[in-house]
Every structure is written in structure tokens, then in C-alpha cells.
From TrEMBL:
The active site is at 66 (charge relay system), 99 (charge relay system), 252 (charge relay system). This is Serine protease. Residues 1-22 form the signal peptide. One of its GO terms (biological process) is proteolysis. The keyword Hydrolase applies. Keywords: Hydrolase, Protease, Serine protease, Signal. One of its GO terms (molecular function) is serine-type endopeptidase activity. Residues 673-736, 739-802, 803-854 form the SLH domain. Pfam families: Peptidase_S8 (PF00082), SLH (PF00395). It comes from the Bacteria.
Length: 854
């Protein structure tokens, strides 16, 4: 059986009102307890104001179903009755977890006693009933026994800061008995961030959610149509195990505040029925969300002051006599109203979550058999009218969406009050009937999604799926709320209709109830069965997603050895699978002329483990290139590798330490013919000059066989090129720099130290102030012209006119620019020269080629 647990965030887990004297009922504005100022929740729910009217209830028993209570705590022991332990019979109800002590302190820590904290009730008779073990876990039946035990001991208020997403017949019977016995039930809505949990979800149980200090719901607080009230649920200061104090959070902290308010109401009005107490709490709540009730905050924030000082209304939902003023009637809740000669019509609106049936049970204090007519207006349905009397239950079909309800007093009937309790049942899903293997619903396709539900107790949904080829099957069952706990079964039908079943897929829990199956499948018929763990009927839907992936066909097989290598043309995408760790795929390609060959992987099915190696046809013992990080490089969008290859035949071998067969890798081999050893100058305007200077060793490219002709040239690079050109031209150039002048940004370890120093030493290059050479700074076109002019000892003088409109004769580099332009070594850009523009590698190569006539 599934257990109830505390969630991680302090889980949740017509008559005359007669006033009686209850002691003490002294008017106190505040408590004198030491840590009272830490209890901001008491001010938030206006308990401090309520105490001016009533602060205690010692006339009735209040049962707390939890982990027990700390009987040694000085702030609790005066309010505790001898408890009952239903977990370990015969033992005391001493708390062995702490949760019960925290809850009890919020409810009824001894107030105004000068120590510790104050409960909503200062003085009370609290009966701890231990239904949760030391881990705060309980069977469903134990909680039901706890309610019955409380009733047997005469409890009139029963608090349950526990929650379960599972429905229980035993719990249902216990809740119904409590209503009939005149006991008010209060429960935490739960902390799953989902639908209201049981027992809070029952119509006759006050479902309490939690809010922060700004009255916004805490994230974990469950919500939905069953939600009734909100109370502070974040950092609520209370009693702790070991006679200490501290904060705890969750709807567990909110529920005891409402229980305390219910007890204070009953202290003033002991003859109130449970429904009267509930309605008075709802009537006096401070609205938080939409006007009236809403599924996020219920009727609003608990207001203890108004609850204990307001007169109870038999029909607080008025005015609602026209459709535009219709009040909310949530499913799984109760509403109360009056009809009479002066108020003949009441309108309600109901939010129906799914296509289904809504049942209404009526309690009417009229002697007439059918004192009122109820008409139901569901979307796209013809209105339906039923005549209702006391004790009647009617059921109407409803479409998902809004349903309006009009209640009308029948003519000639005296005034009367009514109570309607609603219950909802989801319709059978569209796959029904599919309760047996013989009625299994066929699923067709490789990607399928269907919705289902459990509309009745013991419902099972069967599906069949025919697999035509080997492949992989993924099945996921995802419920739309946590009340549903699906179980998935998958089996393959054999001969004679016998079925071999997998172990049940039941790994989900209430925090994540989805079930997932992933398995290898072979041709044949498979059966799928989806059921609910507790075999409950659940108002909710699940989605079954099925995905079948056939084994990918490798069109290049067999290519497991180099002799079977598939031919690969340049640029062609090669694909394949590697279903085992021992499988290898071989490809071959031919290089016709010296080329730069690079391999790319647009897609790799695995995240790691893929290996590639490149071999020459002349030597399979030594790989020219290899890597084990094909998948990683592919994910990064990088080349797998690239290198220069001479003409000949080459082979690629692929294998993987992580096998895959349901998707194929995709690799390409691209070849770029080299021009002068470069792959990026074939159509460049400086192509011939780059080749000539490269052949003379004056300039060099990069390791990836590029020259990058449009890349900027640094001062260090230009000095090196220029010194190399001078030596190639036979000019006497020193072999090393004397080092007479030092520059703080040009250490001896710099790669261009020697060449820059020589260029400076012979007057070709000049430094900057503060002894800087700025070796890595890009050289400008003006600097380039000046250095070439100095290297050639060109006669420089100031001209009367300039060849370029952006180089006035006053410009410091004008003499050099004009001298080189007149020799046709240097060109501008039409009428401009762009002297501050950055010189590119191509521009420098062309200038050096012209200047030295290479």
C-alpha cells in the first residue's frame, strides 16, 4: 500500500445561534508570551483582535492527528490530554518526529503565560492521536482509524495536517461519520503544488492552503476546486521538540490556525453544526483573489476576529438572483442558500474540468416533496431541469467548461433553506471499452499520443501495438494531476495468445507519478496495460506517448574492413551506424593534387565515445590523424580534423565505444586544392605575389593551410617580413640585435625580438614614448609606407601637392607615401589613401614584392 508522507517543505501534510459563557473569555489585546512578537501570523489572521472576544475553548475535545506531541514541552503540557498511539499500540503519543509538536503549538500553545509562544487557542483540551510514524509516514487506514478514534473520544474538532493524493474508502467512511457526529474536520491542502489532497479534498472537510506574509500563496500550496481557506504558511513560529521554539512552513502550519478559529467559534456557539462552522469561516474570510471564491485562494484569508464576532448568514452568497451575479459552486464542495417569496432565484456557476457527470445531493428544510427546480446550462447542451427535494440526489451530464445553474423556488412554497453537495465523475475516455486484452485499442504509427482516464473503480486501459521490424520502443504515461498514480505493463504476445510480460513499470511516486518504459523490441504484437495503483476512480486524465524507432539501415554495409571500404566523393555526406563496440566502418577517397582535407561531423547520435582515424593507403600501421572526441567536436561545431595531403588514396575508419543503431552519424570529407600551399588565395587579387614571397620564404601561412590575406599585420610581423625581404635581396643585414636599447614591452623571449631590434637598429622602425615598441599592435598604412621608404633609403622631402585628399602635405608620412606612390609601389583607394587604416597581409606582400622586384 502506498504511504502518506510529509512533503519536503514541512508538509501538510436554520436555527438560532446561542452564545454561552466559556472561560476564560477575558478581553486581552495581546499575549505576554516571550516570543509573541515572532508570531506575525497571529496578527495576519487577526487572532489578536479575536482574543478580545474569546481566546480559549476548554469545553470540548480537539483531536490532532499527527506524529504525536511533546508532553514535556512547558508551553503544551497544560493543554494536552493523554494521547493515543495508533502506530505502536500500547505506547504513549509522545512525538518522535517533531511535526505534531509544531502543529499543536500553532493550534494551542498555552497563551499569555509569560513564556514561549501563543497558540490561536490559549487554553484547550487537545487530544494527540499518533497516526504518523517517526518518518511522518502512515497507511491510509491508520488515518481513517484516527478519525474514528477521535469521534469515539468525543472530539468535536479534528485537525489533520497530513495529506495523501490517494482516495480511500475507509477514509471516506470516517469523514462521513464525522459529519454525522457533529465534528468539524480541518485538513491541510498539501504541499505538492498540485490538486488538493485527501482528506482536505472531501466536501465536508475544510481544505486549508498556505500564504506568505504578503498574502500570496506559497509555491507548494495545493489548489483547485476543493480549496476553502488560506492561512499563513511560511515561517510560522511555534513550539519544537525538546522544549524549544522555531519556525516551520507549509500548509501543515496553516491548517491548525483554521482549527483554532473553528474551536473559538464553537466556544461561543456550541450548538453550531459542522456546516454552520464551515460557512461562517467562509463567510468571514478576507477575499484575496477573484471576487468571492476562486481555486487559487478559496474564499480567502482566515479572519478570526470576524469569525467570532459576526452573525452567521444562512445565505452569504447573496446577491445572486441573476446570471450576471452568479456565485461560484466548485465541484466537490457544498453551498448553502435560501429561497422564498422575496428571493425566488439563485444562480451559480461551476467550472467543469472534464466531460463528465456532476451529482448534487440536496438537504432542504421544507415539507414539500419538490420545493425547487434546478436548471443546468452546459456549453453546447440543451438545458436540463430537475425538481429537487430533501435527500434527493440528481446527476447531470456536463461538458468541460462553465456550467450555469439556476435554482428556482416552486410556486406556493414557503421560504426554505437548502444545502447542495456536488460530486464530479469523469466520463469514460474515447478508447473505451478497452478493459481487457480482447478489447485492447490498436495503436498505429511510429509516434502516437492518446489520452485516457480511470472513470470507475478497477478500470484498466488496454492497448495493442504491432511491431513490424526490430527497433526501440519508448512508452511514457503522464497523468495531469498527482492524484493519479499510473502503473504500466508491457508484454509480447506469443503463440497461442500467451503473453510474456515485463516486470511492471511502477517507478513513479506522488511527486513525479509519470511512468516510462524504454526497451528493445522485435517483430510481433505487444500489449500495453495502464492501470491506477490503488485501483481508484480518478477525476483526471493521463497521456500515453508511444514512440517506435526502427533500427537504422546502414546502406554502406558491409564496410567493416579497409578492403570493403565504401568510396567517398569529396563533399558527399557519409552515413552509417555502429551497433556494437566491435563494429568499424571504413571509407576511402582519392586526392588528385596537393590539397587541404578536412573532416566535419554535422551529426553524431552519441555524446561521447566516437573515434575516427585517417590512414594512407601506403601505411595502415600509423594514422595520419585521429581523435576520440568526434562527438564532442561535432557538438561544438568544429572540424574533426584537417591536414595537408599529397596525391594518393586514403582511408577513414570509424568506431564507437558507445554503440548506436537507431540513428546514423553524418560525416563529410572536403578537399581544397592548395595554391602555393594555401587554400584561401585561389581567387585573391594578391595571389601571385603571395605565392612568390612564400616560395622565397619571406612570408609564411598558418598551420591550417591558410594565408589569411585580409588579416591585419602587426608591427612585429611586418618587421620580420621586411628583414627577410632585405636578406633575400642580398642586402647586408645584421644577424642579431646588439640590444643597446631596451623596450619594456619587447622582452628577449618575444618571438620577434631579434628582427624588431635589427629594424630599430638600422633606422627602419621607430619606437614610442616610454620605451615602448608595441610589437603586437597592427601596423597602419602610413607606418608601412614609412618603413619601406627607410629600408630603401628613398629620398624624402615635402611636396607642394598631395596625391590623396586624406593625406595633406603636412602629414608626417606624406613624403614617404608620395615617394612610393610615384614609383608605383603603393596605391591608394581612388582619391584616398587611408593612412590610419590597418595594413593587411595581402597589401604588405604586394608592397614588398614591388619594392624588391621579386
Amino acid at each position: 500500500m502506498r504511504k502518506w508522507t510529509r512533503a519536503a517543505f514541512a508538509l501538510a501534510i436554520g436555527f438560532t445561534m446561542t452564545l454561552v459563557d466559556v472561560k476564560p473569555m477575558v478581553a486581552f489585546a495581546d499575549s505576554n508570551d516571550r516570543y509573541y512578537d515572532n508570531q506575525q501570523h497571529l496578527t495576519q489572521i487577526r487572532a489578536d483582535k479575536a482574543w478580545q472576544t474569546v481566546n480559549s475553548n476548554t469545553a470540548m475535545t480537539i483531536a490532532v492527528l499527527d506524529t504525536g506531541a511533546d508532553y514535556n514541552h512547558p508551553d503544551l503540557k497544560g493543554n494536552l490530554l493523554p494521547g493515543i498511539n495508533l502506530v505502536n499500540a500500547g505506547r504513549s503519543a509522545q512525538d518522535d518526529n517533531g511535526h505534531g509538536t509544531e502543529v499543536t503549538g500553532v493550534l494551542a500553545a498555552k497563551g499569555n503565560n509569560g513564556i514561549g509562544v501563543s497558540g490561536v487557542l490559549w487554553n484547550a483540551k487537545v487530544l494527540p492521536i499518533k497516526v504518523l510514524d517517526s518518518r511522518a509516514v502512515a497507511d491510509l487506514d491508520v488515518v481513517a482509524r484516527g478519525i474514528n478514534t477521535a469521534l469515539d473520544r468525543g472530539a468535536k474538532v479534528i485537525l489533520m495536517s497530513v495529506s495523501s493524493m490517494s482516495y480511500s474508502k475507509a477514509l471516506t467512511n470516517a469523514v462521513n461519520r464525522a459529519e454525522a457526529s457533529g465534528a468539524v474536520l480541518i485538513a491541510a491542502s498539501g504541499n505538492e503544488g498540485n490538486r488538493v489532497a485527501y482528506p482536505a479534498a472531501y466536501p465536508t472537510v475544510i481544505a486549508v492552503g498556505g500564504v506568505k506574509s504578503n498574502n500570496e500563496p506559497i509555491y507548494e500550496s495545493n489548489s483547485g476546486p476543493e480549496l476553502n481557506l488560506m492561512a499563513p504558511g511560511l515561517n510560522v513560529y511555534t513550539t519544537k521538540l525538546g522544549s524549544t521554539y522555531g519556525s516551520f512552513s507549509g500548509t501543515s502550519a496553516a491548517a491548525p490556525q483554521v482549527a483554532g478559529a473553528a474551536a473559538l467559534i464553537m466556544a461561543r456557539y456550541p450548538k453550531l453544526r459542522p456546516i454552520d462552522v464551515r460557512q461562517l469561516l467562509y463567510q468571514t474570510a478576507t477575499n484575496l483573489g477573484e471576487s468571492g471564491w476562486d481555486k487559487r485562494t478559496g474564499y480567502g484569508l482566515l479572519n478570526v476576529e470576524k469569525a467570532v464576532t459576526s452573525a452567521m448568514s444562512q445565505d452569504f452568497l447573496e446577491p445572486n438572483n441573476v446570471l450576471s451575479r452568479a456565485k461560484a459552486f466548485p465541484i466537490e464542495q457544498q453551498i448553502r442558500g435560501n429561497l422564498g417569496p422575496n428571493d425566488t432565484t439563485d444562480w451559480f456557476k461551476m467550472d467543469v474540468p472534464y466531460d463528465g457527470r456532476v451529482s448534487f445531493t440536496a438537504s432542504v428544510n421544507s415539507t414539500v416533496s419538490s420545493p425547487m427546480a434546478a436548471t443546468f446550462y452546459s456549453e453546447n447542451r440543451t438545458p436540463v431541469t430537475h425538481y429537487i427535494g430533501n435527500g434527493d440526489t440528481i446527476t447531470v451530464s456536463a461538458k468541460a467548461g462553465r456550467m450555469d445553474i439556476r435554482l428556482v423556488r416552486n410556486g406556493g412554497v414557503n421560504a426554505f433553506s437548502y444545502v447542495l453537495t456536488s460530486r464530479f465523475s469523469i466520463n469514460p475516455d474515447r478508447n473505451e471499452p478497452n478493459d481487457t486484452s480482447g478489447t485492447a485499442r490498436p495503436l498505429v504509427g511510429n509516434q502516437i499520443s492518446v489520452n485516457g482516464s480511470f472513470h470507475k473503480e478497477g478500470d484498466q486501459d488496454w492497448f495493442s501495438y504491432y511491431v513490424r521490424e526490430y527497433g526501440h520502443l519508448d512508452v511514457t504515461v503522464t497523468p495531469d494531476n498527482k492524484r493519479m498514480d499510473p502503473v504500466l505493463a508491457i508484454g509480447k504476445q506469443g503463440q497461442g495468445n500467451s503473453t510474456t510480460w515485463d516486470q511492471l513499470y511502477d517507478n513513479g511516486d506522488r511527486d513525479d507519478p509519470a511512468e516510462h518504459a524504454s526497451k528493445e523490441v522485435s517483430p510481433g504484437k505487444y500489449l500495453l496495460r495502464v492501470s491506477e495503483y490503488e485501483q481508484n476512480a480518478v477525476n483526471g486524465e493521463y497521456r500515453l506517448d508511444l514512440s517506435f524507432t526502427p533500427v537504422k539501415k546502414d546502406v554502406n554495409e558491409p564496410n567493416d574492413a579497409y578492403r570493403q571500404a565504401s568510396y567517398l566523393a569529396g563533399g558527399t555526406v557519409m552515413t552509417g551506424t555502429l551497433p556494437t563496440t566491435t563494429d568499424s566502418d571504413w571509407f576511402q577517397f582519392t586526392v588528385g593534387s596537393e590539397s587541404y582535407v578536412y573532416v566535419r561531423a554535422p551529426f553524431i547520435p552519441v555524446s561521447s565515445g566516437m573515434r575516427i582515424a585517417l590512414y594512407s593507403a601506403n601505411n595502415f600501421n600509423y594514422a595520419l590523424a585521429s581523435t576520440n572526441e568526434v562527438a564532442e567536436l561535432s557538438d561544438q561545431g568544429k572540424d574533426i580534423f584537417g591536414l595537408r595531403l599529397q596525391p594518393g588514396k586514403y582511408y577513414i575508419r570509424l568506431n564507437s565505444g558507445v554503440p548506436f543503431k537507431y540513428d546514423a552519424y553524418r560525416l563529410t570529407v572536403n578537399q581544397q586544392v592548395l595554391v602555393g600551399g594555401y587554400r584561401d588565395i585561389s581567387s585573391h587579387w594578391a595571389r601571385s605575389e603571395i605565392v612568390r614571397l612564400s616560395n622565397r620564404g619571406i612570408v609564411k601561412g598558418f598551420a591550417d593551410a591558410t594565408f589569411k590575406p585580409n588579416q591585419a599585420v602587426t608591427r612585429a610581423q611586418f618587421a620580420t617580413m621586411l628583414i627577410s625581404a632585405m636578406r633575400s635581396d642580398g642586402l647586408p643585414v645584421a644577424s642579431s640585435y646588439t640590444g643597446k636599447t631596451t623596450f619594456r614591452d619587447l622582452p628577449k623571449k618575444h618571438w620577434a625580438y631579434n628582427n624588431m631590434g635589427i629594424a630599430y637598429q638600422v633606422g627602419i622602425m621607430k619606437g614610442y614614448p616610454n620605451k615602448q615598441m608595441k610589437p603586437d599592435q597592427p601596423i597602419t598604412r602610413a607606418e608601412m609606407a614609412s618603413m619601406i621608404a627607410r629600408a630603401h633609403n628613398v629620398l624624402l622631402y615635402k611636396r607642394s601637392t598631395s596625391s590623396y585628399r586624406d593625406v595633406p602635405t603636412s602629414h608626417w608620412a606624406s613624403p614617404a607615401i608620395e615617394a612610393l606612390t610615384s614609383r608605383d609601389w603603393l596605391n591608394g583607394y581612388g582619391s584616398t589613401f587611408k593612412p590610419q587604416g590597418i595594413a593587411t597581409r595581402a597589401e604588405v606582400v604586394v608592397l614588398i614584392t614591388k619594392a624588391y622586384k621579386f
